[in-house]
Design goal:
The protein is mainly α. The chain has nine helices and no strands.
Length: 213
């Protein structure tokens, strides 16, 4: 079924907003649980998407790329939840759980959308197809976000996890990569290297979820 760009935006909008909102709120909740109240005081532990949306990274850039690619390419980011790792009960150890909370929430949401997909077959005829398409989008978006964020590159969640797991003499210099992390990510993205790294992992998770459901 061929969809217009506007139809694709309508299908992807809710899953995208839901994915980034829960992802960022999960980081804030985990940080609060382990002793850092920064996100809580900033009002970022919330499912209100307005609190997490970055005007350029979440709306303008993704829409521009979506229109240019005719709905085949999507890239963007949300406003990072503020976390002061020094305030965690055990900064180096707890950093792992705070970082992992985001990708874990995406995996949970991929499961949720897989359930929606499963139940869409029994939905009323007028709702079945839109529900199915939106559920497929939700599964895909959350798997991609989970796998991308687990890439061991600061400031991605996988980079934070790596810093937490590495011995201190290696963790400090590795953490310094963060200042160049976004530039490295963009280079990997537009060179095609990123897709070659992530595609097999995305397919693996997709197959796992498909097997379960």
């Amino acid at each position: 079924m061929d969809l217009t760009v506007i139809q694709k935006i309508a299908i992807f909008a809710l899953p995208v907003i839901f994915a980034i909102t829960v992802h960022e709120a999960a980081h804030g909740y985990a940080a609060k649980h382990f002793g850092d109240m920064t996100a809580f005081k900033a009002g970022r532990i919330t499912l209100n998407p307005v609190k997490h949306i970055d005007l350029f990274g979440t709306i303008l850039l993704p829409l521009l790329l979506f229109f240019i690619s005719k709905g085949t390419f999507l890239f963007g980011w949300a406003k990072p939840v503020p976390v002061d790792f020094r305030r965690l009960n055990n900064p180096k150890k707890d950093m792992l759980w705070v970082a992992a909370a985001g990708p874990a929430s995406n995996f949970a949401m991929a499961i949720f959308w897989a359930l929606v997909m499963k139940f869409s077959v029994s939905a009323p005829e007028d709702f079945a197809l839109p529900m199915l398409l939106m559920a497929k989008a939700g599964v895909t978006i959350n798997i991609v976000l989970m796998v991308l964020n687990l890439l061991p590159l600061p400031p991605l969640d996988g980079g934070r996890i790596a810093v937490s797991l590495l011995p201190m003499n290696l963790a400090r210099p590795f953490a310094q990569i963060e200042r160049y992390g976004f530039i490295i990510l963009i280079i990997l993205l537009f060179s095609g290297v990123l897709s070659r790294i992530l595609d097999p992992l995305i397919n693996l998770v997709y197959t796992l979820i498909s097997t379960i459901f």
